[in-house]
Write a structure and sequence with these properties.
CATH topology of the largest domain: Aminopeptidase
CATH superfamily of the largest domain: Zn peptidases
Strand content: 15-25%
CATH architecture of the largest domain: 3-Layer(aba) Sandwich
Helix content: 25-40%
Distance between the termini: 66 Å
Number of helices: 18
Number of strands: 19
Radius of gyration: 28 Å
Strand order of the largest sheet: 1-2-4-3-5-9-6-7
């Protein structure tokens, strides 16, 4: 039996069997692709042999381990919270009282080829079941707040079932692991807003109902080579904003970095290099709402993405991830009061704001410094690629201050209306709003209303597909006040509700990850009716009998591109006639100021 489990042999028989099962799951032998063996106590002794340490469980084995834990401990529970795209259930393991002071939700294997968190969470559960308490030098156990821990064993089930050895070409183990894409080949860490997958829609519902205070998504990194085993993406503090962003930046993050140093796992911010190599500087990763931590921010929740270094041994990556999770749980328990106070104050700030940032960028003019441990990068000629390739020389380590871009600024700000109107025709939007706890009030009868809306004057889209979409930007918009016909069953969503920030950042068309950006409203951009020039020529002549319109037309013809195009000249008049439909390019979500 591995040394770390030897200390539990004097525990009661049931607890010992359970913890031994968890040990088994942490030391599984290599499983062939497609095999889904279940964990049983009978084959424990063989599979826990030293030569089998360092593998990661299959989906069914991970679920079996968490189910066993739930059945064996009164403070543990396991339930399904939805169905994945591959048709298998999604599971949530809980440990702790339902009325706990704070809640921490941990998501694993959103990229199943990065399984560090699956194993690490089994280690964390092992400690919880053994009765271990969070250590804090300044507090006794009775002074620490209760914590409800929620763990999703394997979120990307489809990717977890596509198991193999070699899809992560740059990664140092384990022997077999899952695949990044899900059953629809979606990257689920780009799906939190658009919810193309059943996984993401189920997660949205879980997140809204479970209401975590802190969220963690476990990953393995890509990119450069450097000293740290663990890197961290925290919700960008400026973007998280308000008192919660200030608390994260000034209080929690310094404790977490110091705690990981003390635990023997020095941690650095995620290595998002500014130039070719880390020594040229790194910048905060801008976690827009398509990503897990950016999605968490829409609910005023502190988010962390652990990124264990791909080139470090798998067991080290697991140990560093487990150390961070345990440290975080202890920090949240010890500092629950200021955390909850900061969250409440941030929610209040948002509730009282008349406008809100909807797009952010890293400010390149504000340069901090970061003490960083790396390896000197060299260029070595490769006859295979026929070019000089980067080589990180581990025999030449360095520790030095490097530039660090750690300040974000708003790029766009939108005013906040008192309510949005969502016509029921856009049912996919309504479904996602409901999944995030938005209260939609249906109209009881048909009515007409004067509303504020946007006119999309100029827009553009990526020329290549991205996660099943062609991301679109509203490059130029204007506001208009128009009368609209509404129907019984259309929805009004007040912004005076807890989901206020989510509403703003999904329904404002110029927000980075708005539903508009994800092509939900492309149909509104298409004109449906047109004219035949030979027919409309006579109508155009009649329109120009209006002296005001005629004068405006003459001024417009000063634009040579308009003057030189016969069709454009007629179209200019058509769009100002009663024949124009008037809705092409009109954003179909309305605002009540």
């Amino acid at each position: 039996m591995p040394e770390q489990f030897a200390k539990i042999t004097d525990m009661p028989h049931t607890s010992f069997k359970l913890l031994t099962l968890c040990a088994f799951l942490l030391s599984l032998s290599t499983v062939h692709q497609g095999q889904e063996s279940s964990a049983t106590l009978e084959n424990l002794e063989k599979s826990a042999a030293p030569e089998n340490i360092g593998n990661t469980p299959t989906w069914s084995e991970a679920v079996a381990g968490f189910k066993a834990a739930a059945e064996a401990h009164p403070d543990a529970r396991m339930r399904e919270f939805g169905t994945s795209d591959v048709g298998r259930p999604l599971h949530l393991f809980e440990f702790g009282p339902q009325d706990a002071t704070v809640r921490v939700l941990i998501n694993n294997a959103i990229h199943p080829g990065e399984p560090c968190g699956v194993n690490a969470c089994l280690e964390v559960v092992n400690k919880l079941l053994s009765g271990a308490t969070f250590s804090n030098a300044t507090q006794s156990a009775s002074e620490q707040a209760s914590v409800l821990v929620g763990i999703i064993p394997m979120y990307n089930v489809g990717g977890g079932l596509r198991r193999g050895c070699c899809s992560r070409a740059n990664q140092n183990g384990p022997a077999q692991y899952g695949f990044r894409g899900n059953a629809r080949n979606l990257d689920l860490n780009r799906d939190f807003i658009k919810c193309d997958s059943r996984n993401a829609l189920a997660f949205n519902r879980l997140f809204s109902a479970w209401q975590p205070d802190v969220f963690v998504d476990t990953h393995t990194s890509n990119g450069a080579d450097y000293a740290a085993t663990m890197t961290l993406i925290a919700t960008q503090p400026d973007k998280l904003g308000g008192p919660l962003g200030t608390w994260l930046e000034g209080e929690q993050l310094p404790r977490l970095y110091a705690g990981m140093e003390a635990a023997g796992w020095p941690m650095t911010p995620y290595v998002n290099s500014i130039g070719a190599h880390p020594e040229e500087g790194i910048a905060d990763f801008m976690d827009s709402p398509r990503y897990s931590t950016g999605f968490a921010a829409l609910h005023h929740v502190v988010g962390f993405t652990t990124e264990a270094h791909m080139l470090k041994p798998f067991d080290d990556r697991v140990a560093a991830t487990a150390a961070f999770l345990w440290l975080l749980l202890g920090d949240v328990s010890a500092h629950a009061t200021p955390l909850l106070k900061a969250r409440a104050a941030s929610i209040k700030t948002c509730d009282q704001s008349s406008d809100w940032p909807i797009a952010w960028a890293i400010d390149g003019d504000v340069v901090d410094s970061l003490y960083f441990g790396g390896y000197m990068a060299k260029k070595i000629w490769s006859p295979i690629s026929g070019s000089a390739q980067t080589h990180y020389d581990r025999s030449a380590p360095f520790w030095d201050s490097i530039p660090y871009l750690h300040t974000a600024r708003p790029e766009r700000i939108a005013s906040i209306p008192s309510a949005y109107i969502i016509p029921q025709a856009w049912r996919h939007v309504a479904e996602r709003l409901r999944a995030n706890g938005v209260e939609l009030q249906p109209l009881e009868r048909d009515t007409s209303l004067v509303v504020e809306t946007y006119l999309i004057e100029r827009h553009s889209a990526l020329g290549r597909p991205y996660e099943g979409h062609h991301l679109r930007s509203a490059d130029s918009i204007s506001k208009a006040v128009v009368p609209v016909k509404l129907y019984a069953g259309d929805f009004i969503a007040s912004t005076g509700q807890p989901a206020r920030r989510y509403l703003i950042e999904t329904l404002e068309p110029r927000a980075t990850d708005s539903f508009f950006a994800w092509n939900f409203f492309d149909a509104c951009l298409q004109q449906k009716e047109y004219f035949s020039p030979y027919v409309f020529e006579q109508t155009a002549a009649e329109l120009l009998s209006d002296p005001t319109l005629a004068a405006e037309f003459e001024r417009a013809l000063e634009d040579s591109s308009l003057a030189s195009s016969p069709y454009a000249r007629l179209n200019w008049l058509y769009l100002r006639s009663n024949y124009a439909e008037g809705t092409a390019g009109r954003y179909p979500i309305f605002r009540i100021p």
